[in-house]
Amino acid sequence: MDKPHYVIVGGGTAGWITAFIVQDSLRRLKIDARVTVVEPSKIPTVGVGEATTAAFNVFLKSFGIDEFEFFRKTGATFKLGIRHEDWRRKGFTYYGPIDDPHQVVAAPPGAPSDYLNVYGIAAGRPLQDMHMFGPLLMQWKAPYAKKPDGSLIRLGPFLHAYHFDQALVGRFLASKSSGVDIADGVVSGVERDPQTGDVTGLVLDTGARIDGDFFFDCSGFHKRLIVKEFAAAWVSYAHELPVNRALPFWLPIAEDDEIPNYTRAWAQEAGWMWQIPTQGRFGCGYVYSDEFLTPEGAKLEVERVLGREIEVRSDIRFQIGRLETPWINNVIAVGLSSSFLEPLESTSIHGTIVQMMLFARRFLGRPETMTGDHRADYNRRVGRQVDDFRTFVNTHYVTERDDTPFWREVRAHRIHPETRERLAHWQRQMPRMTDFPDDLDGLPHIQTQLHYPVLEGLGLLRQDVARAEMAADPALRQFARDTYESLVKEYRAATGQALGHAEFLRTVRDMP
Ligand SMILES: Cc1cc2nc3c(=O)[nH]c(=O)nc-3n(C[C@H](O)[C@H](O)[C@H](O)COP(=O)(O)OP(=O)(O)OC[C@H]3O[C@@H](n4cnc5c(N)ncnc54)[C@H](O)[C@@H]3O)c2cc1C
User: Fold this and answer.
1) For ligand 1, what atom is nearest to the CA of residue 45?
2) Is 458 a member of any domain?
3) Contacts of 294 (CB under 8 A, 6+ apart)
């Protein structure tokens, strides 16, 4: 039987994550295949996108990639959570640690999934204090300590995330994807089977021709195959998520500076600003709605709030939404070619990893074994995943702010019905894991562990409802109180032992 050929169009983060997962999974499935990445030197990658979620940690672990090498080669830093500033109202800050304390304590039989969160809200105690990442975030520390012999030991079992430069990570993954062919050229023509409509080959602007059996469209906003060839329908989120333009810039980090271990998401007059530290600089940007602000106005606003001039690196406009069917015939769109929404909860690279891990587990096989039922199933699951991202990000806009036309418009008219429905449900019952059906085979998703800190930070949970749930089970309440207190104590002590974030990064850099 012929060796099947899997072709990935695009060598950005999505292309290389896809290449990595597909190649490794084909090997595990014992499918003797060729994998090619079409990576044109003429078209740059998007050049932003530097905060991830815990899914990246899952990805590194699943594929046996050494984390310390990853830090050294990519300039990555830890991301333990997000610092949300000025969202609820100006001057109000809350943190979203990404670890889940429920993971380390066996719940008493019959306890609801989030009983520690429910207890925290009922007792009016800050949820972040019972997270290991809570005190680490406040003190800019790494989830590692140094042993007397100088080696590093991980504190706690929690999955962390990273900040990084996507171009360096692309190169790093390329270096780890042994046996993948690379073709330098822009896809300028597509050949298809007249009977089935399947893609059979690509023509590059160099004149080269690449025949293939299965194709991944990782061409970013160009959407070269999935839209230009297949005209896939678009589900727009532009109404409820009006932030649609970005003004990226960098700020320096000096060699001896301390480095935060969080993404800073700082609400502004018509959107919000991100600040993401890598080892050598802050990648920053103002993502705003151009219904309310011009690029010139955005630059002036940033310079005013930072009190310094900035050098704008580009002006990026994006469409907010997702493809209705990212998998059509023998083409799957992954990454920016498949969906995008403002990077508030770092859902993009996360989505790519989860989608490709799901695809590899459930559907990947020899091309002739993948069926229409597989496509429909994958498209449904991924559609739900991205709709959940939309609803979660939209929830961040249910705030008290009414100080600019943007904030007044968003709170009055741009809250999606599903966001309202979920919030109304959580007025009657505290959020539970069962509110989020698992369509992703247990792969990381936006569930209660990420919702609670945001809902608490925005003041959207009801203490009386939490109290009633706790009062219904006094033994559980006592257990939750004792657990909360012991976790706070344990994590304060662990933070005392933890290395400073910058010190950790220097230690790893200096390793032989
Ligand atoms: C303002 C902004 C901020 C972001 N912040 C975050 C964040 O904090 N966290 C996060 O997870 N994500 C973020 N993202 C998204 C993140 O950047 C992307 O998910 C990630 O970089 C993957 O991009 P990609 O590989 O899909 O596309 P790209 O990086 O654009 O790569 C596309 C590839 O396709 C190739 N290509 C294009 N056309 C053709 C063609 N005709 N033929 C052949 N090849 C072609 C290009 O050369 C390139 O190699 C952000 C995005 C934006 C716009």
Assistant:
1) 29
2) no
3) none
List residues forming the annotated binding site for FAD. 11-14, 187, 336, 349
Instruction: List pLDDT tens digits, range 485-506.
Output: 999 999 999 999 999 999 999 9
Confidence of residue 1 (pLDDT cuts 50, 70, 90): low
User: Same domain for 255 and 305?
Assistant: yes
Helix 417-428 / helix 372-395 crossing angle, nearest 10 deg: 70
Two tokens, residue 171: 């190169």
CA gap 16, 170 in Å, rounded: 6
Confirm whether 79 is a catalytic residue: yes
198 and 108 co-located in one domain = no
Q: Are residues 354 and 486 in the same domain?
A: no
- Asked whether residue 42 falls in the same domain as residue 171, the answer is yes
The answer to whether position 90 is within a domain reads no
Choose among 332, 423, 425, 416: nearest CA to 382: 332
**What pLDDT digit, counting tens, does each position of 133-158 carry?**
999 999 999 999 999 998 999 999 99
The one catalytic residue among 42, 79, 299, 489: 79
pTM equals 0.97
Provide the Cα torsion 393, 396, 401, 402; round to 10°: 30
- Cβ(341) to ligand 1 under 6 A? no
Residue 48 CA to ligand 1 centre (angstroms): 8
Burial class, 178, CB count within 10 angstroms (exposed 0-12 / middle 13-18 / buried 19+): exposed
Ligand 1 pocket test, candidate residues 43, 203, 250, 352, most atoms within 8 A of CB: 43
